[in-house]
Amino acid sequence: MAQDWKSFNPVLIPNIPDLAKIDVYEKNGGYSALKKILVDEKWDSKSVINEVKEANIRGRGGAGFNAGMKWSFMPEPDGGPRYLAANGDESEPGTFKDRKIFEFNPHLFIEGCLIAAYAMKIDAVYVYIRGEYREFIKMMDKAIDDAYKKGYLGKGILGTDFSVDMYTHSGAGAYICGEETSLMESLEGKRGYPRVKPPFPAQKGLWGRPTTINNIETLANVPHVINNGASWFKSIGPDSHPGPVLYGISGHVNKPGVYELPSGMKITDLINEVCGGVRNNKGIKAIIPGGASTPPIRGDVIDGVTMDADGLREVGTLMGTAGMLVMDEDTDIVDVITRISHFFDHESCGQCTPCRDGTGWLYKLMSRINRGEGEMRDLDLLIDVCNKMEGRTICALADAACWPVRNAVERFREDFEAKCKKTVYAVA
Ligand SMILES: Cc1cc2nc3c(=O)[nH]c(=O)nc-3n(C[C@H](O)[C@H](O)[C@H](O)COP(=O)(O)O)c2cc1C
Ligand code: SF4
Q1: Ligand 1 center to 119 CA (angstroms)
Q2: Structurally, what CATH architecture does the domain formed by 5-234 represent?
Q3: Tally: H helices and E strands in the chain
Q4: Which backbone phi and psi does 336 adopt, to 5 degrees?
Q5: Which among 5, 181, 267, 401 counts the fewest CB atoms within 10 Å?
Q6: Atom of ligand 1 nearest to the CA of 217
């Protein structure tokens, strides 16, 4: 059921001064969801998982998988340790929304982790945070300390027999460490190489033990689902992809920023009403809707398109992290895709040949075309390289590197051809 976005009240980053302080958070209803399940109503873990599953919180880290469903994959306890890894690596160009939760509402996220830990019988939560977020790591450490002091973390939480510990862990600048299995390698102190799946993390995760990985924003939604019910969550935005979303909007708009609004917002409302329109009243050349890895779409197809999985699928793209990049009519799309290709070439971990070599080839070819030195056949070569990379590697970075290139060549072919046509051949 859709709700009027203009009357929507933010719940993830509401406008409450000093909400990052634990006392303020408590005064505004904070930790009441945890109390509800542990003390007041004594929910069992299965009821928590079912409520979260029913809410259909689709993972906000990019893949959009139902969080409760993922939690239900954790095996029954066998006496050994079990882990939750909260993914705050946030290193994809165009994505900058989890930082707002660290900065403005860390206790909501901690409470979400605690509820997840209770539901999945987790012993320790690791919060993996992008290394460049130095200040936010400090803020999270302070929030975690305060939660320990108040008895929300540690042994015998709220006088019950539920115990869990929580730690932050800093990344060191590698985008690949946001990929869930690579994140676990990094947490274990190793080089951030993605693991082959199966086994999946729920079976064999951190230190070989059952582990669930969730994005920060995904977990921050959980206390609200427990307090208000799955039906409340599903009343926000479309049924197939409900709830509040942190839209991180950048590029050629007058008011870029992170805006919390219902899922399923029209792209044009986000640009024109929320972000005050395109700079200098220009037209729109292209949109990248959900971080640099999601396929770009042309500005002339966005009318009526909504920001949710189904809406974006209709125009051949993905919701990703809802980090939307807006490019005006003067944008050199070939140049943009060249830069994106450079990013993926730089960030490939190098384990798989199709990705290690393929990202390099994509960048080399894109650079050649961008310099005006490309030939028309290079466009076919780009697609051919993508065909040899997609679905043939350990992790999804290779696919992520291909999608912008493949879709840009197909959707903005005239721009690519215009650059190729500039090639001057020397005649002997
Ligand atoms: C190369 C790569 C980088 C990723 N980076 C992130 C990231 O920074 N943050 C994140 O939450 N998910 C990231 N993901 C997705 C994670 O692997 C995983 O799907 C996600 O953390 C699961 O959480 P969710 O189900 O709550 O979305 C990345 C995936 C890939 C392939
Ligand atoms: S696809 Fe690329 S980033 Fe992922 S494991 Fe293979 S080489 Fe590494």
Answers
A1: 21
A2: 3-Layer(aba) Sandwich (3.40)
A3: 18, 11
A4: -60, -50
A5: 5
A6: 26
